[in-house]
Amino acid sequence: MAISGLGDNYNNVYESDYAAQKTAASKKVEPKAAVPAQAGKAKDVGEKAVSDYYSYLQKNYDGMSKGNVAVSGGYLKKCSGDSQKAKELEDFLKKIPELERQGYEQLSAQNRGLGGTVTYYQQTWSVGSDGSIQSTVYSVTETGMTNAERMKKNMDERLEKQKEKKAEAEKVEEKKEEKAEQEITVKYVEAESELEAKMMMEKEKPEDVYYPKVDMNV
């Protein structure tokens, strides 16, 4: 009986010591830091989303595939994560062919009035980080007037038309649409030749433009 009682006490003490050691050991285990890995993964996913969206635009819109449209990397990133902004960008890209047709016809009509003919016409587009749109028209016109004379006359005509539009706007208050159309700023560059126009075009490319990264391992 005495031995049996001693064995019971020994078992109780052993179990108590084992439980205490197990608890102490569990406290020493520290969780592994996973935040940097998750942050890196999120960055990779974000860059892939932008790259995939850029590829999608190139495949579906001529202006993007031909390189006539430059989109800010910051704005492209916004569009890749915002369906509404993406829709606005793509709606604009759809309009480009018609806008270029109208621009060419307008410039041709102006130059015909000066006795000239447009022999080269190229229009580029730039979408800034805030979504603003700027366009530059590069053209070559054959006419009896000098380049400077033609540019001055064209500028005078544009200023006169701007005054007429302003006067009309003051007389007639247009009804506001639910969503106003985005304003596009257009600049005109007259060159002496097609080669000169293309050189100007290359120099005036905006700096904040998205270009996909090239995988050197491929």
Topology:
Blueprint: H1 2-28, H2 35-60, H3 62-66, E1 69-71, H4 73-80, H5 83-112, E2 117-127, E3 133-142, H6 147-171, E4 184-191, H7 194-203
Parallel strand pairs: 1-2, 3-4
Antiparallel strand pairs: 2-3
Helix pairs in contact: 2-4, 4-5
What does this molecule look like?
- It is a single chain.
- The chain is α/β, with parallel strands linked by helices.
- It is 60% helix and 15% strand.
- The protein is built from seven helices and four strands.
- It has helices at 2-28, 35-60, 62-66, 73-80, 83-112, 147-171, 194-203, and strands at 69-71, 117-127, 133-142, 184-191.
- The chain has a four-stranded mixed β-sheet with strand order 1-2-3-4, with helices on both faces.
- Strand 3, helix 6 (147-171) and strand 4 (184-191) form a beta-alpha-beta unit.
- The longest helix has 30 residues, at 83-112.
- The termini are far apart.
- Mean pLDDT is 76; it is low at 1-7, 33-42, 175-179 and 214-218.
